[in-house]
Amino acid sequence: MPGTRFPLEVQPRIPAELNRLSEVANDLVYSWDRSIRSLYHRLDRELWDGCGHNPKVFLRRVAQDRLDDAASDRSYMEDYRRVMAAYDAYREHRVHPELAEILDPSEDLIAYFCLEFGFHESFPIYSGGLGILAGDHCKAAGDLGLPFVAVGLLYQAGYFTQTIDGQGHQQVSYTRSHPHDLPVVPTLTESGQHLTLEIEFPGRTLRAQVWTAQAGHIKLYLLDTNIPGNTAQDRLITNQLYGGDREMRLQQELVLGVGGVRALRKLGVRPTVWHINEGHAAFQLLERCAYRMNEGMDYDSAMELVAAGTVFTTHTPVPAGHDIFDHHLMVKYLQPMASALGMDFDKLYALGLNSGDGFNMTSLALRCTRFHNGVSRVHGRVAAEMEQSIWPQIPHQENPIRHVTNGVHLQTFLAREWISLFDLRLDDWRNELLNEDYWQRLEDIPDYHYWSIHKALKQQLLQRVQDTLVAQQQRNGTSDAVVRRMTRHLVDDDNDVLVMGFARRFATYKRAGMLFSDPQRLARILGNAERPAIIVFAGKAHPSDHPGQQLIKLIHDYSVHPDFIGKIFLLEGYDMALARSMVTGVDVWLNTPEYPLEASGTSGQKAGLNGAVNLSVLDGWWDEGYTGDNGWGITPRDEHFGHEQRQQEEGNDLLNIIEHEVIPTYYQRDGSGYSHQWVTLSKASMKSTIPRFNAQRMVRDYVRDFYAPARDQRRKLEANGASLARELAAWKQRVRESWAGVRMELQVQPSAHLFHDDRLMLRVHGHLNGLAAGDVKLECLLGREVAGDEFKVEQIAELSAMGEENGATLFGIDLEAKLAGLQYYKLRMYPYNEAQSHRFEMGAMIWI
Ligand SMILES: *Cc1c(COP(=O)(O)O)cnc(C)c1O
C-alpha cells in the first residue's frame, strides 16, 4: 500500500481498580511469579504471546473492553487482590534468619557486576547460561533479603533472535526495543535529573545514562550510551550484547567496569563487597583503586583494599570465553587509567599478562581480587590448574581458586503445576529451599498423581513443539505432507511417547552431534514402534561461531532425513520461554559435553527440579548431582584419547544407556498406564535437585564462604586509616625484593628408616636475604606415593625458628613418626603474613 506510515499508539485507560497492573509491570518479580503474569495473559492470551510476554507493552495494547470486563469480573478481581497481597508480602519480607547472622543490611552491601542478565524473555539483555545465572543470582539474593545491587548494560537490540531456514542455516535478526518498552525507569539524581556519567575515551568524553530495573527487593542499574552528544558510533556501544568487534567489546567493558563504579558513586551507593561475575567487569578494579588513590593512598595499599573486598567468579575453561585485548587497543583506551593510577602503561598492562599474548581480563581479575571461585567442584579444580601461572610457585591443587556450584532459581523454572501441587501438599516449602531432609516429603505424593502432572506438562510441550514446527516449516515452504510426517508422533492420541530434550548453546565442546555417533543404531532405537522415543533439540550458535552453526545444520539434516523424520526435531528461537517449556516437559534431559569443559551447566538442574531425568556426561554440576539412583552418568574417557575417540566411545555409552536402560525403564508398564520404576527415578531426580541446586543454596554459599570473609578482610585492612593495608603492601614489597635470594638447606638428614614412636628430627637453615623469621613459614609435608608419581600428603607439620646459626636462621622440629606406612617427606618455605586473605596469595614458595 503506498503512503507513509505515521506512528500512532492508542493506549487503553487502565481502570482505577486495576492500576497496580502498571506498577507490577515495572517490577521484575513478574519474571518469576507466574500468578502475576497470569493477571496479564488472562486478559488476552494471543496478545500476550504476540508481544513477547512483555507486561508493559501488553498494557499499552490491550483492548479497553478486556480491562473493563476484568474490572467487573468478581473472580478476576479476587485473584488480582490475592496476587497483589502476596506481592506486598514478598516485598515486606526480611533477611533469611540464617543469613541475618552473617550479614547486616544496615551496614553491608554487595554489588554484583555482569555483562548480561537473564530475568525473562521480555527483557532481552542476556544470551545464555551466564546471563541466566546472573539473573537467578539476583532473584535468589532478593528472596533471601540480602543487601544487594546489580550493575550491567542496557542493550537496545539485545542478543539476536534466531530462525532456521529450510536448509538448516541459522538466520540472525535483531529487534530494537526502546527503554520505554522495557521494565526500567530512568535513574534520577537528587535533583530529579536523569543520571549520567562520563568516561574518558580517546579524543572525546563518552557519556552514559543509567536506568533502574526493580526486581523485588533489589535494584539493577543498567548503563546506556545511546544519548545525544555521543558520536553515532559511541551511541551503538550498548546496542548489542556480544556484537561488534574487539574494540567495541573493550568499550563495553569500560562502560560496565569504569562507568558502573562511577554510577554507584554518584548515587551514593557504597558497596562493602564487590562481586565480579566473569572477567568482563574487571576494569572496575582499576577504577576503584584510582578512586582510593585520589583520596591520598599509594597504589599498592589501595589495591590491597580493593582486592580484599572483591569476589571474582570465573565461568568457563573454554579459552574463547576469556576476553583478551591486543596491546594497541589497550594503549588506545587505558592510557588515562594508567595516569590515574600513577603508573607507566606497561605496569598496568602487566596486570593482564598471562602465558599467551595480549591483556587477559581473567588474569587482571585474579591478580586484583582475593576471593576467587569456579562454578562446580570439577571446574574449581580445572580453573585452579588453568590459572596456575598467577601463583607461579604454588602447586595448583593448593592455589586460592575454590568453587561454588551453580544453582537455578526455583520459582523461575519450576512449572506452575508443580508449584500448585507443592502449595497444596507441602507447607511453607518456599522457606525450605536450603533443607535437604524436607524434600524427602515428595515421596508422599502418590505416584499416579505425580505422573498425571508430568504427563500434562509433557502434553503442553508437545503442543508447543507442534506449533513452533508448523510455523517454522510453513515459513520455509515445506510441503504439508512433510509437515504431517514430521508431527505424526506429536499428535498421537495416546501421547505416551518418551521425550528426550537437548537444548543449549551450539558450541562444539557441547558435542550436540554425539547422539549421531552411530546414526543407524540411533534410527533403530528410536524407530521401535512398540516403544517410541523422540528427541527435541534447540539452541543458538554465536553469529561468528561457524562450527557451532555447522552443528545446527547437522541436526537439521538429520531431522528431515527419512530415518529420523518425526523422531528428531530442531526448534528455532531458543530463549527463556522455550527453555522453560522444554525443561518442564521432557522425560529425559541429555547433555554430552567434552569433559572438563562444561564448567557447570544449569539446564540439567532446571530439568531435574521438574522431575526430568538427567542422562549426561559426568562433568560440571552432574559430577556432584549424580547420586547413582537419580539418572544416568557417562564416565568421560581420559583426555589423552583425543576428541574423535572420546566422542565415539562416550557416544557408544550414550546409545547403550538409551537402548538398554532408559527405554526399558520407561516402558516397564506392569499393567498400569505408566512405569512405577520411572516415577521412582523421576522423584529421585526432583528431590535430589531441588535442595542442592537451587540458586538460594548457591547465594547462601557465596555469603558464607566469600561475601562475609571478603567483608571482614576489607574491614580489617581498612581500620585505623587503612594501617594494615599499608603494612601489608609494604611487607609484600619487601618480600618481592628479597624472595629471589631466599634459600633453604637441610642441616641434619635424618635416617630414612624409623620405627613407630621414633623421632624424626629436622633442622633447616633458612637464608632469608633480609627477611625476618616471622616473615616466612617452613613446613614439612609427610606423605606416601599413590598412582603414578603423585605425592599424597598425610600430615603437615610446621618448623619453628630456633635462633641464628652460622649466619642463617635455624628452623627445626622433632616429629613423632606415628603414621606407619609413610614413605616420603618434603620441605617447603613460603612468605607468611597474617593480614593476607590467603596464605599463598603471593604465589611464592620454595622447596628443598
Ligand atoms: C539455562 C539456559 C542456558 C544454559 O544452559 P546450559 O545447560 O548451562 O548450557 C542457556 N540458555 C537458556 C535459554 C537457558 O534457559
TrEMBL record:
| Residues annotated with N6-(pyridoxal phosphate)lysine modification | 606
Occurrences of domain DUF3417 (ranges): 14-122
**One MF term in the entry's GO annotations:** glycogen phosphorylase activity
Q: Which reaction does it catalyse?
A: [(1->4)-alpha-D-glucosyl](n) + phosphate = [(1->4)-alpha-D-glucosyl](n-1) + alpha-D-glucose 1-phosphate
Specify whether Calcium is a keyword of the entry.
Answer: no
**Taxonomy, superkingdom:** Bacteria
Ordered alphabetically, the record's keywords are: Allosteric enzyme, Pyridoxal phosphate
**Could you list the residue ranges forming a coiled coil in this record?**
none
The answer to keyword Plastid applying to this record is no
- GO BP: carbohydrate metabolic process
Q: Which family does it belong to?
A: Belongs to the glycogen phosphorylase family.
Q: What is this protein called?
A: DUF3417 domain-containing protein
Annotated organism of origin: Pseudohalioglobus lutimaris
Its taxonomic path starts at: Bacteria, Pseudomonadati, Pseudomonadota, Gammaproteobacteria, Cellvibrionales
